[in-house]
Amino acid sequence: MFLLKCINSKIIRLNIFLLFFVISLIIINNCSDDKNIKQISSDYNCDDFNDPEIWDTRYRIAKTSYLEGSYEDALEVYNNILIDAYNTANKLKIILTKENIGLLYIKMGKYQFAEKTFNEIEFELHKMKKQGRPNIKYLATNYENIGRLQKKLKKYSDSTRSFETALNIYIKCKQLNRVIICLNHIGANYFHEGKYDESLNYFVKAAYVDRTNSYKISLSLSYFYLGKIYILKKDYKKAKYYLHNALRLDRERKSTDNIFQDLKLIAEIYVLEDNWLKAQNYYSLCYEVLKNIDKKKLWVDDQIINVLNNLINLYKKTKDEKSFKYYQDELDKFRISK
What we know:
Number of helices: 17
Strand content: under 5%
Order of helices and strands: HHHHHHHHHHHHHHHHH
Mean pLDDT: 87
Radius of gyration: 23 Å
Shape: globular
Distance between the termini: 47 Å
């Protein structure tokens, strides 16, 4: 019933517009004025996306090390794979391994090394093209990864151009899962530049394509940013709609960090609406979630202090002495423990 109330004529009109957008995505490569995109379209074959996956059991070992935060160990494994790939002249394996190394460098904050690695991939792809064996799949992925790097460096306009180039390839080759990811990245770039209308446009498109194709790749992320944008626009009803949907998806996936972020934004909306009781409820939920997040994460301590202070202030406003004392004691105990 709640969802039915949220569906109004404006949303229906918006969905019709978005349907035309999806159609335009499919044909955009034929009407683009970008000479580089036309060149890409004529020189590359979308069959590259159907190539069998390159696999090496050591990739799994590297991924495990990565997930455990052992980045140097992961890098060592990838470098060993890379040596073998060069020894066997396996071009695609060289590129795939370098992709992983480049992304690892981004995670490690070694941005110059990441840039060098992605430039090396570009050189390898150029050689393959000259030899009559271009590969559009790896070309698109490299543009996407360069966009990620530029985003980290806060070069948002450059990042958007890189993602747009990748996006056009994915549209041409009907790789909708990658289309969604690129749309979200472009939306985030515009958000960080303070261009909220442009950002909203891309996140709505990403959410629509994601939802209508049942991918749910990054649907909660799209909803989360839409919630943030509508908070800035002071449209709290829409903000809560999107954030509650993000929260539902994150709970389904048990994404604890994201659940906390969703709850915190919803609590902040209720503060803005002077709804102290609702705000107390959502900040309390935030605090319970924070207790279960790995304390090794650098941001957790600051957020615990922030949430507890918000709860103390809210219970002071509502003159709930018992709850006020409880959270004040929690804050004191936390500070002593540190």
